[in-house]
Write a structure and sequence with these properties.
Layout lengths: L1 E8 L3 H10 L6 E9 L16 E12 L1 H17 L7 E6 L11
Antiparallel strand pairs: 1-3, 1-4, 2-3
């Protein structure tokens, strides 16, 4: 089991939901957040959002899923970022889940 985390600007939320569905992830959580960025980097690649000092309305998506679906989502994100979102890319992360409680009835 993996924890998939995806973050993007609020404007891209519907596209991320569509991408999650396309890779077979139908159960996920969403939370809104505000990202703050200060331009102190000379290299925009080192900077998370790449632009002027500002704050941005963002969304985090979380899903516990299998490795295959999580990797397919990262591939979909990479493809999308190659085609669009060069200034404000969608970001994805896969984190291992080392242990968890079993749902009622599965013990």
């Amino acid at each position: 089991m993996k924890l998939l985390i995806v973050t993007c600007l609020t404007d891209y939320g519907d596209k991320v939901v569509e991408m999650l569905t396309q890779v077979g992830i139908s159960v996920f959580s969403k939370t809104e957040t505000t990202e703050f960025k200060e331009t102190q980097h000379t290299n925009l690649i080192d900077n998370w959002y790449g632009g002027d000092n500002d704050n941005y309305n963002s969304i985090f998506f979380f899903s516990f899923t299998d490795q295959n679906k999580a990797e397919r989502m990262l591939e979909a994100i990479d493809l999308r970022n190659t085609e669009k979102n060069k200034l404000f890319p969608i970001r994805g992360f896969i984190m291992p889940v080392e242990s968890y409680t079993a749902p009622v009835g599965e013990m």
